[in-house]
Amino acid sequence: MTAIRQHTIRQFGVNSSEQMEPLMMGIGLSAAPALILPDTATCGETQRLLLEQPQAACIVVCDRKQRPVGLVMSDAFYIQMNAEYEPEHLYELSISRLMNLHPLKVDFATPPGIVRERAESRPSRTRKDAIVVTREGEFFGVILPENL
Q1: Which InterPro entries match (predicted)?
Q2: In the 8-state DSSP scheme, what is residue 94?
Q3: Are strands 105-107 and 21-24 parallel, antiparallel or unpaired?
Q4: Cα dist. 4→33, 77, 80, 115 in Å?
Q5: Lower CB count within 10 Å: N or C terminus of the chain?
Q6: In what order do the strands lie in the sheet with 58-62?
Q7: Which residue spans within 74-137 are E strands per DSSP?
């Protein structure tokens, strides 16, 4: 059983006799925004976005309902693109051909210790991949393993 600490915060303009909203303490408080592409994106569109945002470590691929369906780490993407003798034929292919179809996904309220354990137990080839944080099933942000 997972224990989640709850704190309450007082909303601005709410007096002490009114109901206070609980604030969940979880990994989501450490999540950072990330680039998002639709699951219909091509490898060429992915490359253009990474060239426009060179500081981006990753791109989260989401469906129409903003649920994460894959992860593209920029370093791995460039390695895969450059490994092809003629990468031009990859530009029109779906990003699903090169993305990680099974990234580590955690809920916003998951305690950091559990996230750390799950991240460290991943295979070595994906151990440095970003961790996708969701809230009510929708994409919320990412956490890089070095920030755990």
Answers
A1: CBS_dom_sf (IPR046342)
A2: B
A3: unpaired
A4: 23, 36, 40, 13
A5: N
A6: 35-38, 58-62, 68-73
A7: 105-107, 131-135
What is the C-alpha separation between 108 and 26, in angstroms, rounded? 6
pTM surpassing 0.85?
no
Tally of residues, the chain? 148
Strand 131-135 versus strand 105-107 pairing type: parallel
Tokens of 35: 């680039």
What is the rounded CA–CA span in Å between residue 14 and residue 95? 47
Residues 6+ apart with CB under 8 A from 100: 70, 71, 72, 73, 76, 126, 129
Q: What is the pLDDT of residues 56-109, one digit of tens each?
A: 999 999 999 999 999 999 999 999 888 876 767 888 999 999 999 999 999 999
